[in-house]
UniProtKB/TrEMBL annotation, chain A:
InterPro entries: Glycyl_radical_YjjI-like (IPR016905). It holds the Pfam family YjjI-like. NCBIfam families: glycyl_YjjI. This is Putative cytoplasmic protein.
UniProtKB/TrEMBL annotation, chain B:
NCBIfam families: activase_YjjW (TIGR04041). The lineage of its organism: Bacteria, Bacillati, Bacillota, Clostridia, Eubacteriales. It holds the Pfam family Radical_SAM. It comes from Caloramator australicus RC3. This is Radical activating enzyme. Belongs to the organic radical-activating enzymes family. PANTHER family: GLYCYL-RADICAL ENZYME ACTIVATING ENZYME YJJW-RELATED (PTHR30352:SF13), PYRUVATE FORMATE-LYASE-ACTIVATING ENZYME (PTHR30352). Residues 37-64 form the 4Fe-4S ferredoxin-type domain. GO terms for molecular function: 4 iron, 4 sulfur cluster binding; metal ion binding; oxidoreductase activity.
Amino acid sequence: MDNVLNIIKDFTQTYHQKLISLARAAENSLNVLNISDEVKNLKEEGIICDLNEGNAPYRPRYIVVDFEKFFKNGSDFLRLNPPNDIWEATNNLLILYKHIPSITSFPVYIGNIDYLLEPFIEDEKEAYKAIKLFLEHIDRTITDSFCHANIGPKRTKAGEIILKITRELQNSVPNITLKYSDETDDDFAIEAVLTSLDTAKPSFANHDMFIKDLGENYAIASCYNGLPVGGGSYTLVRLNLAYLAKKAKDEFDFLDNILPYAVDVMANYMDERIRFLVEESNFFQSSFLVKEGLIDKDRFTAMFGIFGLAECVNYFINSNNAFERFGHGKYANELGIKIIEKLDEEVKKHKNNFCKFSNGNFLLHAQVGIDTDKGISPGCRIPIGEEPELPQHLLQSAPFHKYFPSGIGDVFSFDVTAKNNPEFILDIIKGSFASGLRYISFYGNDSDVIRITGYLVKKSDIEKLEKGEQVYNDAVVLGLGSVKNQRILERKVRKI
Amino acid sequence: MKAPVNKIIPFSSVDGPGNRFSLFFQGCNFNCLYCHNPETINLCNNCGICLEVCPKGALNIIDGKVLWKEALCVKCDLCIKECPNLSSPKVKYMSVKEILNEVYKYKLFLSGVTVSGGECMLYAEFLKELFKEIKNLNLTCFIDSNGYILFEEFNDLLNLTDAVMLDVKSYDEKEHIMLTGKSNKNVLRNLIYLGSIGKLYEVRTVVVPDVLDNVNNIYSISKMIANIDDKIRYKLIKFRPLGVRKEFSRIKSPTDDFMTKLKEIAVNNGCKNVIIT
């Protein structure tokens, strides 16, 4: 019980942060999952990691509510009627947000907010005020950076107002993604680029590619996770390819034996987590979100995460020559693709009946890492400090993206002079998507709001926390860890 | 047909609109005191002095010509620093096809191609052949020039060119000769001609405190621009002592206040699109 007392006495946690920590401690005092020795061993070795999802899953990790349906029907449970104006619309959303569970206890998806609010924009001045209060309310009450809003693909008045206010507020929450396609007109995209250089959001999602993989009705939630609307993901567990590599005699042993074994063990562990959540926790029997059709079990999947591909490949390459390592060398890059191809093949062999949305399969996810990862790169990313020039970087990265429908992305830091030529960045986005990139994020090197790995944190908040002061956003502590362990602030600044 | 290429930058944000593939040709008909890449001025005379400083043995003389082995090069640039001839042993003679192969790799990411230098108009015939092919890729073609060669004599090339970015380094002829070694008569003639046919994207002037009469330059050049088309972009560039010759490395950059003052002069003269970099 030391842990519980430590939480209570922690000076840097706010009251609400303590409550969540205490709930987590209570959950973790249980031992109800049927976990094999093989899973236990790989977990202890740091090869399988469930990202502190808890010992007794009682809510899906990521819930992606169908907000359009909520607007159409209102909610009996919450005694809300369908909204009639911008004030009712934003108010209804803010109420529902407080009732959406997730791994963080905050909603990880808050809707395609421009499309949701567009029908209610009559007087622009009034809409501006309503949306500004709405976004401010979100930042101060959904105090977690994994909260994600979507906009686009088409330009709307609401979308323009949201971008303008986003630049003014300089908040870290919500994270925002612009679903980008041919339907997005250039002027709106340029506004989004300028907003991103100012305050690290929105990111850009390859809309056509996501539709092809997940259908029209998808959303980007949490960091950059592509998931079905009206559903979500039961769980996300990740495989540490960097550590797993060390168990192999050579790359052939890795591909033929070690990787298939680890995929099998991890998939079984995910099965068990899903089984408890669906069959024992009663979430899908009791939640009003299910009863009112805002989510549906058949629209859920599960995310099979990996990270540390770069270090895995470099372990087999065993070379200090920068031109031979992952991200640079032809052989290394091809080995990276071979490993992901094999991973895809093995993960697809496994079936779970609860993942109806994805035909019984788990969806691959290039996990962005957690604060305590030291010297291991996110997903398939090239390590910070070894980044090639931008053109080579994008062309190297693109071939990996098609394997990861539930999320993969690259982050670039641009010198502020890019603001003089935002078309330059839009060209890069267009080229990236045409080359098969799924998701791209960037920020200006003078921003206060910065992208850590997938989520946003204010640099000024990191400084406060480091001095031992409380901050209201619970992700700042993760950002601080990542700055220390993953050299986030040393990302190559693109000055071209 | 081949032309000497000093450098290729596949993604550039500062050589025209959008993302551009920038191609820097070797050789220049000016010799500016403040040149930021003086190694692009002359063609290599194969003296071989650079061989002595290369730490990796990437340079050899074969049949009297300096040859650069790119695979061995570590880009330390000691060869360039040592060159007494304002040149570089790393220049590649490239054909239109070889350049196209490079452009093709990055085509999806580009708005277009910008040719620069050195002075790219020394290779106007080559540019014509190159632009014909670039146009087939649906990319725009921009020329970055010092304006010494008269564009009116190359209308075939101009027909293939979307726009020109022109350096006007000084309004005063004597000062221009002092700075570049050549008169500015053609430069100003080009400014008027290119402006009149709607092919002038941008005019640039580098601001150098104490060396140039900056106020007079910006005043007179901006007046000319505004008379032609007030929407033409006028870019005022701060001199920066990076990459310049030793004699110029002690000259200071202009202050932000001074740059803002110059911008105001240009705006007051009617220029609608003035930027400072």
